[in-house]
Amino acid sequence: MKYLHLFRKIFEYDKYIQKHQKESLMKQTIVAASLNAFVFLLLSVVNIIEKSYFMLYFTGISFIILLVTMLIGVKTKNQKWIDYLSIILYTIVFSAFIILGGNDGFAALWVILIPCISMLLFDMTAGFISSCYFLLLLIVCFWTPINSLLPYAYTRTFLIRFPLLYFSSFLLSIYLTVIIKRTQYKLLIEKDSLFIEKNIDKMTNIFNRTKFEEDMQNVYPKCKTLGIILFDINFLKMTNDSLGHMYGDEMIIDTAKSIKISLNDNQSAYRIGGDEFVVIMPNCTKKDCFAYITTWKKNFDIINSNNKELYYSVAYGCAFGNVGFNIKDVLNEADNNMYTCKEKEESEDREKVANLIKNHKNN
């Protein structure tokens, strides 16, 4: 049970790593596929020199398939495509090596590399399944009467020792995989914790002002276009002074929630002050800005309608920077539009909010 729990944990670690290191894993997969394609090309050259045309068929086709797989994977940015097809290719080709015994049985020795290559360089789960398959295949082909039916007559010593050699390689690869995956997972957790500590606002669980200033300096000036929407909660001070900070905090959290659930994948929200928020939309259009505001209003109205004790009021201002924009000018425009909205809404709703607060106190 202890080892089963360990295996389950390692597979969970691998899923976490796959999710959080997509870019670096894609590079690793491309490098691994490139090296393996080069090895098959090298073997093809050797087979041509030695006039081993039967083995040339396997190595040449494998080189072409790996090359095409890698090119498609790079173009589609699909790492799993490369991982799975590579492992399937190795499984088919190396199974043929074992059964047919090419190059005087030497070709079967390549199977020793399968556990390490498949589990560490490609997909761990698919690699583990493939490695188990080869262990079973070697036992069946070498340690049962089936070995007498194989086209190539392996020596008795090879038949006895090779499955044990492969099993040793399999165990060593599992051990290395466990150590590496566990280390990668711990490093990622520490990295994520540091990122959260530095960049995430604890109350609202969105980016904080530190992250906003960093992105405004390093990320957003490189965009072709930029949409900025500023938000400011109305009557927060009145609510804090009259009912207490617990109600004010509730207004901040609910407002942040309405902003966050309205985001698309390429949009980011930040809390830049006590009651101030900003949404940044890189490489967007004016239509995208208006679409976000429409979605946010719907979500905000739902929160407002579910709240029977307080009336939530939030002012907002939107600005759009076209090609060649100045990021400070766009931000100032959004800020000016937000304050114009705030003055209007606070003058219209002040009496309504005051009455709600009064009624709440009386109750």
Features of this protein?
single chain; 363 residues; alpha+beta; Alpha-Beta Plaits; 2 domains; four-stranded antiparallel sheet; 4 strands; 71% helix
Detailed description of the structure:
Strand 2 (268-271) and strand 3 (276-282) form a beta hairpin. The chain is 71% helix and 7% strand. It has twelve helices and four strands. It has helices at residues 2-20, 22-49, 53-76, 79-100, 114-121, 124-143, 156-199, 209-218, 236-243, 245-260, 286-306, 327-362, and strands at residues 226-233, 268-271, 276-282, 314-321. The protein has a four-stranded antiparallel beta sheet with strand order 2-3-1-4, with helices on both faces. It has two domains: 2-198, no CATH class; 209-362, Alpha-Beta Plaits (2-Layer Sandwich). It is elongated and about 95 Å long. With 363 residues, it is an alpha+beta fold.
In short:
The chain is of the alpha+beta class and 363 residues long. It has 12 helices and 4 strands, in the order H-H-H-H-H-H-H-H-E-H-H-E-E-H-E-H.
How many beta strands in the DSSP annotation?
4
Span between N and C termini?
A: 58 Å
Return the structural class: alpha+beta
Oligomer: single chain
The stretches of 5 or more residues where confidence is low (pLDDT under 50) are: none
Beta-strand share of residues = 5-15%
Radius of gyration: 31 Å
For the biggest β-sheet, the strand order reads 2-3-1-4
Mind describing the biggest β-sheet? 4 strands, antiparallel
Number of helices: 12
- Helix content class: over 70%
